[in-house]
Amino acid sequence: MKFVIIYTLIMKKKIIFFLLIYYLFFPGLAYSKDINPTIQPEPSSEKEKLNKYKFGKFKNFVIVTANDYATRVGYQIIKKGGTAADAAVAIQMMLGLVEPQSSGLGGGTFITYYDQKTKRKHSFEGREKAPQKLKNDIFLNDDGRPKKFFDAVIGGSSVGVPGTLDALYKVHQKFGKLSWKEVIEPVIRFSEEGFIPSNRLINALKKEKYLFEIYPESNFKKIVEEPKKKFFNREYTSTLKKLSENYKSFYNTKIAEDIVKITNQSNSPGVLNLNDMKNYKSIHEKALCHKLTNNYEVCGPNLPSSGTICVVQSLILFEQIFAEQIKSNSSFSPDLNKVLEILDFVYFLRDRYLGDPNYVYINKQRLFDKDFLFKNFKSFKKDSKVSSIQNIDEILNSTSHFSIVDKSQNVLSATSSIESSFGSRLLTNGFFLNNQLTDFSFKIRDDEGNLIKNRPAAGKRPLSSMSPLIIFDENENFLMTLGSPGGKAIISYVFKSLISILYSNSNIKEAIEDPNYIKIRGKIYIEDEKLNNKLAIKGVKRNLTSGLGIIFKEKERYLAGADSRRDGTVRGN
Ligand code: GLU
């Protein structure tokens, strides 16, 4: 008997010891077990509480989004047996409720999808389209000079036909397992119960200059007045109910009529009509993929997003310029001066050569041509002039990125946006309408008199920088997925994280949290003054609020991280 007791005690200790070691090495697995997957009752989204969900390690599935309510609804859907496509629908619907300033039904999206079974890489593009009656001088004043940025943003003239819902529906049709209704259902229930707004939403509303001028009585005022109270967006709930029955009702019934009416009747009226709404079609095509010299493959959206193209061009130049260090096979920290020159050049190419390929000629052969890129990079350096950035508002704080790996190892990476914070500020049926048309160049011709490729035109899609990327290793296995909001700075944020993981052997936390930088039109911006110690030409310090989300596959587990600069979280199992 004595022996049995002693034996049991020893075994117990062993188990405790084993558990200690297990949780020490797999903290993600430890906390993922305690997660209450239900979304209510609601904790606040204060930073400290969310901090423990910023990074984690998981075995079976993982979700990273910009808001914990959205992360949790994604978790719930996957737990229930849903795929990445099912979770994406619920996540996006939830983001439209809890982070309405950034993305939603009134906006557009780029989704990259890796189907593990067929090993195919897909792209779903739901970019907003300009109305058929749009005139190309829409953003010029009577004197022919470009409008001030926010004069163009506010009101109906900046609203493109929203594409997010159509793209989501296509992803779900192709790769969803649960029914359309079933995936929207938990968001409907959640919205009926109301939610405590995040500090980020409260602050965005407190800072907001235009919204309450247009809607002095808006329901959103309650968030500013009583930020600690539950917020109900009942119009959004009823929109979700309608869409869960029939998604098409967004494009061809009263919701469409309301969108048209509100854009046409605003102070700065647009020319959107019902046919624009009815005829909208998102695009499902092969993702744009490019193999690097180490045979890693980068995949993401095609034009009209410049994201994949610009990041790949930066990587091609990087590999050329740092070839010696890369060959030596050890990790290295690249000279930041050179990294910034690469970015400056790639932004220059973007301005000059990219636009909607349905409207302007794009020399596809040259996009990833090493010789063309390197030759022009060298001559660009010689005569690159410092000109100040046209519009500081180009680096904005809205938009949302999320990534999912499901139990069958399908990967979905999505960046979604209504452009500016609260978009055009026009609000209907519980969601904000985008101002994505201000992603067109305001001018039609450049200073030399050449037509600008990204000039506005009827039916055209404005150039984007969204970069929901998926990267594969030399054996064509999934290696990582990443993306960020940040307007044109997305390209710099994603490039920074990629080179630090691929070439400097950084972990994902460093890759996300290391200070951001960007060089655009000859001007350097840095997030941390310390970076200036590395720079020959000093940068200007400013907020560079990325919202990076990364999932990295390491052996049999996923390491995931959400940017501490925003509210994002990581959950999984
Ligand atoms: N409208 C931007 C784009 O499509 C995204 C805005 C943002 O990330 O803040 O590139």
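The chain has 22 helices and 19 strands.
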